[in-house]
Each structure stands twice: as structure tokens, then as C-alpha cells.
Specification:
Blueprint: H1 6-62, H2 65-71, H3 73-76, E1 81-88, E2 93-97, H4 99-104, E3 112-113, E4 119-128, E5 131-141, H5 143-171, H6 176-193, H7 208-275, E6 278-284, E7 289-293, H8 296-299, H9 312-315, H10 320-330, E8 335-341, E9 344-354, E10 360-369, H11 371-416, H12 423-449, E11 457-459, H13 461-467, H14 469-476, E12 480-485, E13 493-495, H15 497-513, E14 519-530, H16 532-537, E15 544-553, H17 560-563, H18 583-593, E16 597-602, E17 608-615, E18 639-643, H19 647-659, E19 663-667, H20 670-679, E20 687-691, H21 699-709, E21 714-719, E22 727-728, E23 731-732, E24 738-740, H22 745-756
Parallel strand pairs: 12-14, 18-19, 18-20, 20-21, 21-24
Antiparallel strand pairs: 1-2, 1-5, 3-4, 4-5, 6-7, 6-10, 8-9, 9-10, 11-13, 14-15, 15-17, 16-17, 22-23
Helix pairs in contact: 1-2, 1-5, 1-6, 1-7, 5-7, 11-12, 11-19, 12-18, 15-18, 20-21
């Protein structure tokens, strides 16, 4: 069998190649263009529908067809829009454009192309504040875009036929001369087939191959132009959509901003009117109310404009002063007057109303509720008085504490050297007991002035009541019924246990003394929240959660005059010798020092209730620790530096410590202490005992300087009163060793022993 010639092979190969290229171009590109056309239709439809649904939301919400028509004008001008139907949330048609066309294509179905792909239907929800208020139905015609696709397809078909025909023709004139150009052409065609429309066939001659290359390049130019046309159309559409979106968003934001400004203005005016503490009224020349506004009306039990249309002479018929003022202002007088009405005090300005001719047509009055102002003035004067007495008490207590420290200390030292059978032992015991009583009196003064040292712990008042139950029952006696009402799940408070016991004892004793013929005494605890309404009636009170302790009796009660003085120190209604007048003042000081409040409710013949409010804390109740039994004074060893500006106190401390085996150095102030250490070349100081407040150099500064040369030195502070260098707002800093004057030698020695061994 004869083999085919190379020419025949080449002709056969090139014929097949050209045919393949033609078929590829004919089938691939039209399908690809149609697919992209449908995607473009879908993207355009969703973009336009989403923007239109967003812009039409306010019109649909308020059922405003005119606004809907205006908002959709631009969309309707789009020639690709076949119909528009807007359905509200009840399924009713709110707006329709070409409704007959919409019903023809069954517009309520889901997003889809029609049977012959001539229309793309889309349904999009219309929302307002994320709530669906209707559905936006749009039908997009595909004729225009598919027409372009069809035209491009015909162009491609003709180009394919031309390529195939030209290729078949070229095969017949194939020779070795044109083999190389054909290979180049084949490579170019392959690149174009991959989608690179920038490729062009090279033209190396003016013969048929050159013409073929030119025709091929022309075909590719036509194809590229078609793609470029589609791309430009797509970009133009995207730009139009983007610009329209910006315009719609800008219009929406401006409208929203205007609505917000209007709402703010309305709320501001409403807030001012509804919260102003004024009562603004107006009457006509006959005294008929024409206006009545202001928050002050609430306290009078009157609603805004409630009395409009009524006669002022009828409304205030029981208040002759107000009627006289109305007559006076209607006569043309302007004046100011303070009126007390329904337990409220108002400062009122009256002004006549005149027309353009100067004739009186009515009057207006503006009243300000100054009830709280009057009450605040009274409370402020009372607070000033209490603060002045408190400062005096604190200053006196400091001096007495130093004196009592010397008396108590020397009495205890003297008793250690005497036999209990000795007459002097009894006499000195009386001195010590009297000093202790004086110290308790000073402690009460400090409690009132809120300047004493306290060590608060987390405790529950129900537990305190239970622990004190037996003692309190002994205090009140058998002729008084004693009732406790502890609250369930009572919150904890942070307070010194001794202080709350002192408060309870004083309140119980006062309640007992108010019932000389017997009666009923009730102690109650509760969790309470003091709100704004309570604060308005009780100044200087912080709102929040509190634990209430109430002590009530059904005794004699008190009048207003007594109630204004009961918290003053040394004020008492008892007979001479039966009361110091420090009980309730001590309670007042303790409660205030612990950031609480105390209030008295009483009427003559109806008993008294005293309520104490202590701030709630979230911590758990502290575990109680039994006090150490003081059987005997310990003996120790070590170098101790005592710095105290009161010579008698310094002598007592030094004498006591030296008697218990310690090596003691003494000084009257900080500079003297530093000088003694330097001159005597003291190499070791185990403990510094120093007063807090001293001339020249205080105790804290001295300890700081000594710590440089004696890094292991420990410190024990002592003071007759508190100071911010040791105590912050009357509360002892955690871990700080402190002795409150007056103190006994035994307590001091045990404190020293504890510090040196820990």
C-alpha cells in the first residue's frame, strides 16, 4: 500500500486543524458569552432590586404611593425593567408597574427565568429595622442582552465559517514555503483558544497566507471588540448602579438625620417641660385657667392642664391668700410671693398679660418648689452644728488619752508590786477603774467625732443579735416584751464588732428608758435599697443597697424639738445623774464613720423607731476568733527604741519594758532618736515604739529613715488620736501594728512580744 505524501499529510493535518479551530470557536465562545450574559442579568437584577427595596422601605411603611412613584422613577426608566410589583406584608399590592405583564409571568414565584429565558423574575423582601414589611417583585427582560449575544454569536459563526473555508482553501496551496507560517498561525490560534484575545497572527508576506493572517486577525479583532463591548456595558452598568446607590444612601442618611434631629428637639422640649420643678399657670381676665404645666403639679396631685377651663376662684376657694394674689395681678400688679400649699413651699412670680393696646387680658404665674431648699437649709445648719461639736470632742479626746495612759499604766505597775490584801491595792484599783471609765467616755467622744481607730470585719447583724441576745434581755428587764425580727438571707456589712455592739446597746438602753411602765421593744433587720425618692427626702444619703437595723418601742415618743437635738453630745432629757447624753451621739458618730445613715421616726405618745442603714458588702462573714486569755506578762529580750514626746508616757513605757528584760533606748522626738543612735553607736534595733504625731519629726518618717540602716527593724505605732499618716478615714491599715491610747502595760508588753516573735 502506497504511503501518503507529506503534502497530503500536511493538507490532511491542516484541514483537520482548521476544522477543529472553527468548531471550537463556533461552539465554545457563543456558549460562554450566553452564560456570562445570564450571570450579568442576574447580578444587575439583584443589585437594582436590593437598592430599590431599601429606598422604597419608608414609602411602604407609611403607604405613601407618591413617594414610591418618585423613588422608582429612575428604576422604571431602565428599558430592561418589564414590570414592578410591591406587595405589603398582608399580601396586598401596594404599587404596580405593568401589572398585566407581571401576572402573565406569575410574578409571585421564586427567583427564576421564564420557560424560554425571555424574562428573569426576582422577589426581594422589603425591610424596616430588620422587620419584613413587604416584598419587591421585578421582571427583567433579557431581549436586549440576548440580542447582543445573538449578534456576537452570528459574528463568531461567520468568522468560524470564514476560518474553516479559508483554511480549506489554504490547504490546497500548502507548500514547504508556508509550513513555517502555518505553524506560527497554529500557535497563535491555540493561545486565542485559551482566551488570550491579545494574540495576533504574524503577517510575513502579501500572498494568500498573509491574507489569511490578516483575515484571522480581523476576526480576532471583531471577537475582541464584542468582548470589549460587553465589558464596557458591564462597567457602565456597575458605575450607574454605584452612583445610584450612593445617591439613595445619601438621601436616606439626610432624611434619617433630619428625623433624628426633629426627634431630639421634641425629646428635649418634652424633657424640659416634664422635669422642670416649676408650676406655670395662666388665667384670662375672668380668672379662668388657660394653661397649666410643670413637674411641680405632680406634688400637688394635679395633672398638666387638668385645671384648664376651671375658675381659679373655685379651685383655690379655700386659700384666700392665693385668691387675693390673683385679684391683685389682674389689676395690673407684678410681684413675688412665697406660698405654703399642701405642706409644700412655693416661691411665686405674678405678671399681668396685656394686649397691644395695653389692656389686661389675663395673668401668668411661675412657681418654684423651694420645699427641699428650706429643708436643706435646716439640715445644713444641723450638720454644721454636729461637725463643730465633733471637732471639739476629737481634740479634747486626744489630750485625755495621753493623761489616761499615764494614769492607767502607773496604776497597773503599782498593783503588780502590792498584795491584794493591802489597802493601797484597793485604792489604786479604784483609780484604775476610774481611769477605765474615763477611757470609755473618751472612746464615746471619739466615736461621735468619727476619729477613733476601728478594725472592721465582715459580719452579719443577725449573728450579732444572736450573740448579744442574753445580754440585751438582761438590759431591758422582765417588764418589757422583747421581739426580734431577723430578715432571711440578710446581707453582710463591714464594721467593727465592738462598734455595732455599742450601737445596739445604746439604742436598747434608750428604748428601755422610754418605757418606764413597761412595753414592747422590737429589733428588726432587713435588706433595703434606697432609691431616688428616698434620697429626695433625706439629704446627704447615697443611693444604693443597705442593711437596715431598726429598734422600735411603744414608749413616750418625742416631739420635733427633742428630735433636732438627740444626736448632740451631752444632750439628754433624763434626770441629772441618770444619763451622760452620749449614747445616741455615739451611735451617730459610729454610723457616719462607717458610711451609713441613722434616722429617727417618733411622735409624742406613739413611741419611737430608730433606723440604722449600713452599706451592703459582698464578702463572706469573717470567722470569729476568741480573745487570748491574759494570765501573766511574758518576759522577753531585745533592743527597743521608744520615741514619745509626752515625758510621763515615755517614762511609763520605758519602765515597763525594762522591767520585763528588754534593753530600752528613749527619745522625745525623731531627731533626738537619730542622734542617740549615732552618738552611742547602736548597732542593732529590733523594735521601734513611736508616737505618730511628734514635734520636728513624726513617727512614720523616723521609721523610714531607721529602715535604711536597720532593714530588719519592726515598728509599733501609738497615738491618742488618728492621723492620715497611720489611719485613712479612721480605718487601720491592714498589717499595721498600732496601740490606741490609753493602753495598759500588760497589753503593751503582749503586743511587743507578739511583734518580736512573728
Amino acid at each position: 500500500m502506497r504511503l501518503l505524501s507529506i503534502r497530503t499529510k500536511l493538507m490532511l493535518v491542516f484541514t483537520l486543524l482548521v476544522a477543529g479551530i472553527s468548531l471550537f470557536i463556533y461552539f465554545y465562545f457563543p456558549g460562554k458569552m450566553k452564560e456570562q450574559a445570564y450571570e450579568l442579568i442576574i447580578d444587575e437584577a439583584h443589585s437594582i432590586t436590593e437598592i430599590a427595596a431599601f429606598s422604597i422601605s419608608p414609602a411602604l411603611l407609611f403607604e405613601d404611593n407618591d413617594t414610591a412613584e418618585e423613588m422608582l422613577a429612575g428604576v422604571k426608566n431602565n428599558n430592561d425593567i418589564l414590570y414592578i410589583v410591591i406587595v405589603n406584608q398582608n399580601g396586598e399590592i401596594f404599587y404596580a408597574f405593568n401589572l398585566s405583564e407581571a401576572e402573565k409571568y406569575n410574578f409571585r414565584n421564586k427567583n427564576e427565568f421564564t420557560q424560554f429565558n425571555e424574562v428573569y423574575k426576582i422577589s426581594y423582601p422589603v425591610k424596616n429595622n430588620n422587620l419584613i414589611i413587604g416584598t419587591f417583585h421585578v421582571g427583567f427582560s433579557t431581549h436586549k442582552l440576548l440580542y447582543l449575544v445573538k449578534e456576537s454569536k452570528n459574528t463568531i459563526k461567520m468568522a468560524s465559517i470564514f476560518i474553516f473555508s479559508f483554511g480549506v482553501l489554504a490547504v490546497f496551496i500548502i507548500s514547504l514555503i508556508i509550513t513555517s507560517p502555518l505553524e506560527s498561525m497554529a500557535r497563535t490560534v491555540q493561545q486565542i483558544a485559551k482566551g488570550d484575545l491579545k494574540q495576533r497572527a504574524s503577517i510575513k508576506s502579501n500572498d494568500e497566507i498573509g491574507d489569511f493572517a490578516k483575515a484571522f486577525n480581523c476576526m480576532v479583532d471583531t471577537l475582541e471588540a464584542s468582548y470589549q463591548q460587553l465589558e464596557n456595558f458591564n462597567k457602565n452598568l456597575e458605575n450607574r448602579v454605584r452612583e445610584r446607590t450612593k445617591l439613595l444612601i445619601s438621601e436616606f442618611e439626610e432624611r434619617k438625620k433630619a428625623e433624628e434631629e426633629a426627634q431630639k428637639s421634641y425629646e428635649l422640649v418634652h424633657t424640659i417641660i416634664s422635669n422642670t420643678p416649676l408650676v406655670i399657670t395662666a388665667v384670662d381676665k375672668n380668672g379662668i385657667f388657660t394653661y397649666s404645666e410643670g413637674k411641680g403639679l405632680e406634688k400637688m396631685g394635679v395633672k398638666p392642664n387638668q385645671i384648664v377651663g376651671q375658675s381659679a376662684f373655685e379651685v383655690f376657694k379655700e386659700h384666700s391668700i392665693i385668691l387675693d394674689n390673683i385679684r391683685k395681678v389682674l389689676e395690673g400688679n407684678s410681684f413675688q410671693y412665697t406660698i405654703e400649699l399642701r405642706h409644700l413651699v412655693f416661691e411665686t412670680w405674678y405678671e399681668p398679660l396685656k394686649d397691644s393696646k395695653g389692656e389686661i387680658t389675663g395673668a401668668i404665674s411661675v412657681s418654684v418648689d423651694i420645699t427641699d431648699k428650706k429643708r436643706l437649709e435646716i439640715q445644713f445648719l444641723q450638720a454644721q452644728k454636729m461637725e463643730t461639736v465633733g471637732r471639739l470632742a476629737g481634740g479634747v479626746a486626744h489630750d485625755f488619752n495621753n493623761i489616761l495612759t499615764v494614769i492607767t499604766g502607773n496604776a497597773e505597775i503599782a498593783l503588780m508590786s502590792l498584795s491584794p490584801d493591802n489597802q493601797l491595792y484597793s485604792d489604786i484599783s479604784v483609780i484604775r477603774s476610774s481611769a477605765h471609765r474615763a477611757a470609755n467616755l473618751i472612746r464615746q467622744l471619739l466615736a461621735f467625732s468619727r476619729r477613733q481607730i476601728i478594725k472592721p470585719v465582715i459580719l452579719n447583724l443577725n449573728t450579732t443579735l444572736l450573740d448579744m441576745d442574753k445580754m440585751l434581755r438582761r438590759l431591758i428587764g422582765e417588764d418589757i416584751e422583747y421581739v426580734t425580727l431577723p430578715a432571711d438571707n440578710l446581707w453582710n456589712v463591714n464594721i467593727d464588732p465592738g462598734q455595732i455592739e455599742q450601737v445596739l446597746t445604746n439604742l436598747i438602753v434608750n428604748a428601755r428608758d422610754a418605757m418606764p411602765m413597761g412595753g414592747k421593744l422590737t429589733i428588726e433587720t432587713a435588706n433595703v435599697t434606697l432609691d431616688k425618692k428616698y434620697i429626695e427626702l433625706h439629704r446627704y444619703v447615697e443611693p444604693g443597697e443597705y442593711v437596715m437595723l431598726a429598734v422600735s418601742d411603744n414608749g413616750e415618743g418625742m416631739d420635733e424639738e427633742i428630735k433636732t437635738h438627740i444626736f448632740e453630745p451631752f444632750y439628754t432629757t433624763k434626770e441629772v445623774g441618770k444619763g451622760t447624753g452620749l449614747g445616741l451621739s455615739t451611735c451617730y458618730g459610729i454610723v457616719k464613720q462607717n458610711k451609713g445613715n441613722i434616722w429617727v421616726y417618733s411622735e409624742p405618745g406613739h413611741g419611737t423607731t430608730i433606723k440604722v442603714y449600713l452599706p451592703k458588702v459582698h464578702e463572706k462573714e469573717a470567722t470569729s476568733i476568741n480573745a487570748e486569755k491574759l494570765n501573766e506578762l511574758p518576759v522577753g529580750a531585745g533592743n527597743i527604741l521608744v520615741v514619745e514626746d509626752e515625758s510621763m508616757v515615755r517614762h511609763m513605757v520605758v519602765r515597763t519594758l525594762e522591767g520585763k528584760g528588754y534593753t530600752v533606748f528613749r527619745a522625745s522626738n525623731g531627731e533626738e532618736a537619730l542622734r542617740i543612735i549615732k552618738n552611742e553607736k547602736i548597732s542593732k534595733i529590733d523594735l521601734l515604739i513611736t508616737d505618730v504625731i511628734m514635734p520636728i519629726m513624726g513617727g512614720k518618717e523616723l521609721f523610714t529613715k531607721l529602715s535604711v540602716n536597720f532593714p530588719d527593724i519592726k515598728v509599733l505605732y501609738m497615738s491618742g488620736y488618728t492621723d492620715d499618716s497611720i489611719v485613712h478615714h479612721g480605718v487601720l491599715e491592714s498589717g499595721l501594728a498600732f496601740l490606741q491610747k490609753p493602753f495598759s502595760p500588760s497589753v503593751m508588753v503582749r503586743k511587743v512580744q507578739h511583734i518580736l516573735t512573728h
